Amino acid sequence: MKRYRDYNPIAVAANMLAAALVAMFSMDPVILAVALTGGIIASLTCASMRKRDHLFALGLFVALVVINPIFSHNGATVLFIMNDSPVTLEATLYGVSAAMMLVSVLYWFRAFTAVMTSDRLLYLFSRLSPRVSLVLSMALRTVPMLRERWQKIEQAQRALGLYRDGNLIDRVRGILRIFSILVTWMLENGVITADSMDARCYGTHRRTSYALFEFGCSDAAVLGLSTGLAALTLWGLSGTDFQYYPTVSYTGSAVTIIGYIAYSGLCLLPGIIELWEGIRWNGYRSTR
Amino acid sequence: MERLQIDALSFRYPDAERYTIENITLDLCCGEFVTLCGATGSGKTTLLRLLKPQLYVQGERSGSIRCDDRDITAVPPEQIGFVMQDPEHQLVTDKVWHELAFGLENLGVAQQEIARRIAETAAFFGIETWFERRVSELSGGQKQLLNLAAVMVMDPDVLVLDEPTAQLDPIAATSFLEMLRRLNRELSVTVIIAEHRLEELIPMSDRLLVMEDGRLTIDAPPTKAVQLLPADSPLLSYLPAPVRLYHAVHGTGACPMTVREGRDYIRQHRAIPLPIQPSSRSPHPRPALTLKDLCYRYRRDDSDAVHELSLTVYEGEIAAVVGGNGAGKSTALLLCAGLVRPYRGAVKVFDRRVSDYPAEQLYHGTLALLTQDVTSLFLMSSVRDELKGYRDGERMLPFDLSPLYDRHPYDLSGGEQQLVALAKVLASSPRLLLLDEPTKGLDASAKNRLSVLLKKLRNDGVTVVLVTHDVAFAAGCADRTAMLFRGGCVSVAPTREFFSTNSFYTTAAARMARGLLPNAVTVEDIASQLSTEEVRA
Questions:
Q1: What ipTM does this complex have?
Q2: pLDDT tens sequence across B271-283
Q3: Hey, where are the domains in chain A?
Q4: CB-based contacts of B467: which residues, under 8 Å, 6+ apart?
Q5: What is the three-class DSSP state of B484?
Q6: pTM reported for the whole predicted model
Q7: Nearest chain B Cα to A134, which residue?
Q8: Which of chain B's residues have a Cβ under 8 Å away from the Cβ of A150?
Q9: Taking Cα atoms as reference points, which of B476, B418, B407, B406 lies closest to residue B443?
Q10: Which residues of B touch A6 (CB under 8 A)?
């Protein structure tokens, strides 16, 4: 069963980034509502989100909706007067749209970071340059090593009687000392890593780049579908204009509908793939 | 590759007076398993690095190294694999699969081919289960196995290894060496390995090379090589227990190489068993360190690293704590030193809870901890600066450190680093000294030196607690030994009693003497019995 996250990272990244980018640069409420729905579905299927995360998103949404009309007094339709300043319908609607945009992008990126593990990100970079991906991989290796080492040095130095006085200056000096030991240690041991790389023929040939990910027909389909739908969305929306101030105005055409449908397809693709694979799996189980 | 010929090879580092390697001639056939042994500084590493032209060593070289009548520099680099000591820093990338691919990527091999060769190698080494893991999550043994696999994936003809198991615990070291044996037997890879741990290596090697001061003094099959060693050679202490026994009693005839042969040897040569009396040091009633029902875990969802651990160490003794990987030994030591706090239970140092001490008093004059990797103590660029302000500690050592003064702490051998670190730690005149794996990476002579030093400290009134995997070391120097298992202490007894009762987790000497010579746990114990019996007979 090939789940959404199992598709080739290039296809997945194209799909998610296209969905998020369109949402980021649009103020069309229809588009934003679709983006929000799609984002929520994507993060529910891909990321392990807790109740707390959803509450945070909801809180952010409400706060944005409330804050915009308090600070922005543009708009022709006054709803009521608060503290001698008007609260307008247009500003409220603008707040809703802005909140939808921010929260939907938040959800999309949440799903993106959950799916794009370091392996997958490295894979994307390695398509650009094998060198960059190696450097990134080495950096990812170094960070946990240094963190662990810092703790070890700290313990050893503490047992040696570091932090004699226990005041701030002493503490800063202690940290500088640990840092100095860490840097020496890193440089000394970097020689070993360099030898190990030389011993394994680094720099003797033009490097290739191996990846765990295959690019098959279904990946090509998702990539093609994503780029196609994104292009269709841009084409469909090119003629529309949505203005909030001074009054809400909207210009669109029949083509816009195509844009909306295309964008819905783009955003719902993760959910559709998950649903479809789920159905197929159940069918497979029941026929066995 | 058919053969590797070294002819009259000499090597001198720039500005060095002496030759590090002098006039070595050696002929290796394809598929041989060769073990190289020698004291630290005898030139083993230099010789091995000269076999790998990519690890260019600067200096003056004469003589030749030829591979099938080609100079070694003309050999494709992937045909000679090289594995070093440090498991951690040889790894380059962050994921296991990427590490395996690294060498092939460097060679510019196509993606499909890489996939095939990685799959083969991972299957051979049993890496599939941790194929997608981060390397930072692996144990030391797994890391070193990965280093070996990452070299083997390039399909070398010759494998050169420089003390690959020095940083590993005994179980991991054994499985590493077993893998090496399989590579040699099943793929007929030529293996040249320098190592201090000869217990397992000697039975599997075809030839044993002995280096002394840059010269190759012995080159023979192991059974013969061990008999060629002179009786007063310092290298004898590097040999497996059965061989040491053979030398200690000035044996004649075939030399026992394994524990089984050693047992036969004892059976043939003993007359009447003369039981060794268990050592009767008067137990000191005053406890130096008391652990009571200690519990500790690193994260809420983990299981206990230390679980209801209770142990008492008395003043003026050397107590050894042994146990497998993840038994909680190192964590227990951190708890003792007050560096982490238990969530239940109490640690008392000299009858006072460790948490009640002000840090100033605890780490000055009460206890000291020597961590596993002593380089975390080094701050300066020379030993002289490193020891400035720590002269009191230096005076407590029975060794003279002044010849090391001008060297960089990182350039010292493992044993020398240990001494400098101990000098720093002892400067605060601790009454309780805690040591974490003090013998890791040390050669036999450095271990002997450490044993002498610990006994001297004990006689000066310092209580010593050492955590170790090295059962032979514990048997040789500890007064009492405790065994940890799954975070708790399962047995604690006077050392001799401890090791003679255990049947698996004990010294090679005790395994040889078991049931034949009661209470013998070291080679010296057995030798003393055999020789007296021979005199009597």
A1: 0.87
A2: 566 666 655 556 5
A3: 4-121+222-284, 129-199
A4: B320, B321, B322, B329, B330, B332, B333, B434, B435, B436, B437
A5: strand
A6: 0.86
A7: B93
A8: none
A9: B418
A10: none
